[in-house]
Amino acid sequence: MPQGRIIGGLGSPHAPSIGVAYNTGKGETPAWKPLIDGYQPMQAWLEARKPDLMIIVANDHANSFFFDRYPTFALSVAAEHEIADEGWGKWPLPKVPGHSEFAWQLAHSLVGQEFDIAVCQELPLDHGCLTPLSCFFPPERRWWLPVIPIIVNVLQPPLPTAKRCFDLGRAIRRVVESWPKKLDVVMVGTGGLSHQLSGERYGFNDTTWDSEFLDLVEKDPQQLARMTHQQFMEKGGADSVEEIMWLVMRGALSEKVRRVHRNYYLPMVTGFAQVIFEDLGNEGEARRAA
Amino acid sequence: MTMAEKKDPQPRWEIEVELLPIKSEQIDFAHPLQGTYLTTGSRAQRGYRLSKFCMAFMSPDTRAAFKADPERVMSEHGLSDYEKTLIREQNFNAMVRYGVNAFMIFKLASAFGVNQNQTGAKMRLQSFEEFMKTRNVKDAL
After folding, report:
1. Closest-approach residue (CA) in chain A for B94
2. Interface predicted TM-score (ipTM)
3. Distance (Å) from the C-alpha of residue B13 to the closest C-alpha of chain A?
């Protein structure tokens, strides 16, 4: 009797400045408090719901991978993950535990569903995973939960389509729901909303679009899944195309979700958003499959 | 008249267009976004060697060696004169146009003690002070 289930999804930015601010105690400063406070409900939700596994969808920032060989999707089966040196020294964090047993099943079942994901036995993590993880788990609670990182190419086109990302989430749900043991899984989608980090358009933002994105990812993610990369980049800046990683998280959730947290803050160059979506189970699944 | 047809004093590769005849349902190559230089096809390949050089800064040994003798490290990596010039001038705008991804440029910029938003200001061809006037919260760095 399958017992695995998705219990909810978290959305979080992953900019390194946030992780550094949190880890160096700047969370109470006026510049950072509006965002760092937004992690408290997320920490509390995790502690209350006690998932057995976190699947985090992030991108590599040319730390685990380089353009000599760059995977579209990658999955870690490692028992633990090193901290990457991104060019200015490693963050002082303990290695992040993985979940090899479920990760290998996930690898087989995703490829079985024709998601031909690269399988990694070593995957140093950079700020893409470490910023949200740092903020979800305060120092005294690192890391009480195993983590399976899924890495998406959002750096060098061709990138996977928004629809493909959403469908990957749905495929992950099927694997979780066929797992024979108790396994409560929380999905995490990471990435900034509007932002662009290169060219003369560096610093582009659109708070109206960011707000609309947050409405859509909650209530009508299929509409986002139909968007092209060009549309994402026009509306939110070139690097906002990483919002497709939120769609992996959302695709893994029930058709309707209960939003219990939403926060938005734009201090510098990136629209930062945090959400908690609770899964409403499979009551709507027949409808969704139809 | 499209951007590609326009007479421009700059070499074509310095502007936003992709030179290869790539067709895509996701990227509208006929209408490139202004101030945006995607590392597609030709740009990605052109920027590859300099990108690889930036990656070397993940090693503390390279960071120390570059600090001691930048010319030696650049020569050891077989960089062209143009690439070396971009580095000496910290011309981050031209590096983006040339085909280096921002996350690689940040590694190199860090070796010069230049942070992400200082790098970004240079990409915008602005002073850091001018750029910061456009931001909401000045000390969220």
Report:
1. A199
2. 0.92
3. 14
Kindly identify which residue of chain A lies nearest to residue B126, measuring between CA atoms. A200
Q: Do B124 and A200 touch (CB under 8 A)?
A: yes
> How do residues A89-129 score in pLDDT, each as one tens digit?
999 999 999 999 999 999 999 999 999 999 999 999 999 99
Report residue A193 CA to chain centroid gap: 12
Catalytic residue selected from A14, A127, A229, A261 = A127
What is the fold of A4-282?
Answer: Protocatechuate 4,5-dioxygenase; Chain B (3.40.830)
B39-132 CATH choice from 3.10.450.50, 1.10.700.10, 1.20.58.100, 3.40.50.2000 = 1.10.700.10
pTM: 0.95
C-alpha to C-alpha distances, B119 to A39, A66, B13, B104, nearest whole angstrom = 29, 21, 21, 12
Residues A34-43: pLDDT tens digits? 999 999 999 9
First to last CA, chain A: 24
